[in-house]
Design a protein that fits this description.
alpha+beta, Nucleoside Triphosphate Pyrophosphohydrolase, 7-stranded mixed sheet, 3 helices, 38% strand, binds isopentyl pyrophosphate, binds magnesium ion
Length: 148
């Protein structure tokens, strides 16, 4: 199959790291402001950068988006997500991590208001709607970050 370089760059699968940041029975979610998954509730996280390991990416993305420092970062699972809606289709291998707050007294801040309406803690048994569809699919499939 032949293609040009620009097409390859746009369509190449990318890797993202997202974080189940857990506190008691709650998880941190924010409503996205983005071309992909706009207005849906999602985990903090984002694109894996060159040379990063998953734990480094998790800590950087959570800090950049929420101001929080995290600890006990561990790998949970991986999903393969194709986003075909909208003008720019994308394909992400999404790496799901779990972590706790480094200091339980920390309060999330909305550091990137152009990307998120704000962060809050939600009971796992009473999640907000609508969830970002990759997360919604995991929930519907019975995934539980507390018991994984
Ligand atoms: P950034 O890096 O802007 O935080 O990316 P994101 O939150 O849009 O995450 C990209 C991967 C998603 C779409 C699975
Ligand atoms: Mg993000």
């Amino acid at each position: 199959m032949s293609s040009n370089d620009a097409t390859d760059l746009i369509l190449a699968p990318k890797a993202a790291v997202v974080v189940f940041l857990l506190k008691e029975k709650k998880v941190l979610l924010g409503r996205r402001r983005a071309a992909v998954g706009d207005s849906t509730f999602a985990l903090p996280g984002g694109n894996l950068e060159f040379g990063e390991n998953f734990e480094e990416c998790a800590a950087r993305e959570v800090k950049e988006e929420t101001g929080l420092d995290i600890a006990n970062i561990e790998l949970l699972t991986v999903t393969n997500n194709l986003f075909v809606e909208g003008p720019k289709p994308s394909h992400y291998v999404t790496i799901f991590m779990r972590s706790a707050l480094a200091n339980p007294d920390q309060v999330p801040q909305n550091i990137e208001p152009e990307k998120c309406d704000g962060w809050d803690w939600y009971d796992w048994d009473n999640l907000p709607q609508p969830l970002f569809w990759p997360l919604e699919k995991m929930v519907n499939d019975g995934f539980n970050p507390f018991s994984s």
